[in-house]
Amino acid sequence: MRQDAITPETAEENEDEEEVAAEVQVLEFQLGSETYCVDIEYVSEIVDKGQLTAVPNAPNYVEGVMDLRGRTTSIINPKSLLNIDEAGESKRIVIFDPNKFQDEAATGWLVDEVYQVVRVSMNDVEEPPLEKDDAIEGVIKRDGELVIWISPVHAIE
């Protein structure tokens, strides 16, 4: 028998690997009246909105900075960044893992509410409606609703 031959056991293992590879975990949150999500691999923690220090001459989407465990963390308002209706009070901050960003900057997004972490099948993800927008990974159809999947890395560029 050839070493690379597929046996019933290896075929089943390959199917299992394909099923795992076809799913991703995302953190769902609210911005305005809509639900958005990011890949959970980018998220390091979620904290309550505290006191932010304004930064002079910062871009309009930077709400300020905060000291988070001894590290200055930039807090970004994705509503301003992505031109989302400003309705809703931002109460939580999704802190991203700085090691996932090229400049390793400590960054967080101000969100209205954090919902849950869910597994999403890549079969439920549609291409973004705007081909040129790298910030949008796709649109997820779930429970009769649409969830916009955002790339935190590309949203800020």
Automatic annotation (TrEMBL):
Pfam families hit by this protein: CheW (PF01584)
SMART domains to which the protein is assigned, alphabetical: CheW
Domain CheW-like residue range list: 23-157
TM regions (residue ranges): none
Protein name as catalogued: Chemotaxis protein CheW
